[in-house]
Structures
1.
Amino acid sequence: MKATKITYWITTIIIFLWEGVMPALYSQSDLAKQGLSHLQYPAYFGGLLLAFKIVGSLILIIPFRHWIKDWAYAGFAFVFISAAVSHGVIDGATNAQTIMPFIFLAILFVSYYCYKKIYKTAP
């Protein structure tokens, strides 16, 4: 059980840093704005995505009811899959930016599996 908790916290903190802290710090940078326009998203989408990422990452870190955490996990899974599809359509399937969201999706799945194992709620 101790190894499961350690794995849970390591993977959850990786998601928190990648999806909560980094976007909060760098979402207004020129590189982030160029990335959104490169993927042909409207400019307001970045602010909306930022708000949801920060709220979702806080839900994963702070104790909340289990069903709320399930929605946060589902939201991040949707974000990662959508990011991979968006990059795949624009940049091609073999681009690193297309593959990277799947790596974070795997980390998210490990976090979710450990979360369910620790708290023994039905998957």
2.
Amino acid sequence: MPKAALHEDQLRSLESLAHRMDRAFRIPLIGTRVGWDSILGLVPGAGDAIALLPAGYILLSGHRMGASKGTLARMAANIGIDTLVGAIPLIGDLFDIGWKANVRNVALLRRHLKHTAAQDEALAKRLARRSDSNRTAPRQATAVHPHRRDIERSTRPQS
């Protein structure tokens, strides 16, 4: 299975997990979507700790998929903000409704992998062009070895 297809399957799985954690339910009348992260955040202490598990899994998956250190740092920052502010009673619960760390992290990961794939594709095209040009038009020697100049001059027909 190609690397891109494997990543696509993993990303879809992570998006599904992020959706369940951040947007699984719609609050009637308001229309705002909340997920299990917001619901678990209502349970003091243990709820926020339990909600860290799927967020950590998304971060670990990003590492395994080859995300850059910068992308992983941003993902960790999103989780840290969600956890720290989410630990504040009531304010943290309201914050969890708007701050969708899991959805943000999967979007960051997708954007990074798409950018990396585009760079890899461009590099492959440049390398293919370079190898094609080497195959179709062999180079002619333009420089003469310094010790051979005397020999070439003596064997060259005089005009």
